[in-house]
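Predict structure. Input: Cytochrome C, 415 residues.
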Amino acid sequence: MTKGGIGRRGLLAGAGAALLSRPLNAGTLAPALAVVGGGIAGMTAARRLRALLPAARITVFEPLPAYHACYGANQVLGGWLDDARLRFRHDALARLGIGLVRETVARIDLDGARPRIGGRAFDHVVLAAGVAMAAPAYDGYDPAATPPYWTAGEGILPLRDRIDALPDDATVVMVVPGAPYRCPPAPYERATAIAARMQARGRRGRVVILDAKGSFPKQALFEDAWRRLYPGRVEWLPLDMIGRVTAIAGDAVITATDRFRFDLLHVIPPQTAARVALDSGLGDGTGWVPVTGPAFRHPRAARVSALGDGCIAGDMPKSAFSANAQARVAAATLAAEFLDLPAPAPDLFNTCYSRLAEAETVLVGGPFAFVDGRIKAHDGFISTPGESAEKRKAQTEEAVAWIDLFSAGIFGAGD
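Output follows.
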């Protein structure tokens, strides 16, 4: 099994195991806990807190009737995965005795001794509301005409339809923001999937990536794949070559040095923590939420933990795998605090799979540790160019199996 994959830590089942193995008096402890967000971090936190604190009164606030996963969305776009495998409901919460409130939380009131949501006080709030799209700093961008296709999985289907409707020899221009943003390698996996989709349908055409950065994750792996699998179909242009994007005018993107015509424009806007985080005063000057320690506690709001894509988690990328890991560690730490028990050692890990073709997948990942108050990566691993076809195929099978196992552990029937 690939290092870091399902066989080793694929579901991060160890976080909190030390607590679960002890005879606890948790049945008599009933803190009121709120989870804002029913995605990966929120669902994981709610379920782990229920397992560790059986009598806790847990409420999840989530406005959407179902969760449509972003992980795997590019594989749907490439034609390699059925979108139905990325759609989930929150039915497990009721079976676990967890309350579900179908509403958007606009603000967490932090003025009193305990945080309040809609006038209701809680002993602790877990903020896992994801990200918000920020307005790009250039003229002429209309999000209604050019949706970002980045906030949830459902955006991938309209994008797929628009790609399939393109004429032969079309140009897709992607505008990629500076870091940080949700899933660092995803724009380049998406460009790969678009190229693969056009090629599989016998269409000429290319993808031009206008990047606000000078490098990107897994760069050698993606560039190798573009040369081998999709020659002439993907062109990456870094910031120092084109300058910043300044405007969109008609069917062209204008940069500081050039003009790029498109048949389809795909803008990935810059991102921030969700509005509820910023409107509650939990963000910092970067637009993200700072956290400290294994409880992922806000430094100025001791009864709030922030998890997932909206928080500043040191070296951990904004990924589904990271969000799940953070939620497990935070839940175990918070439960230990409520029970006045030593917290288990934090076990933080991430693996990020990127699909390159029907039978080609590469990955990067490794463990993380708290060092001097900051989350630092160590002993990481990454695929290398030139790996055998057998290894890439095995990694593809592992990645697809991970999607199903990972999803079942978060949205499945119950612990």
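Residues 1-18, 20-27 have pLDDT under 50 and may be disordered.
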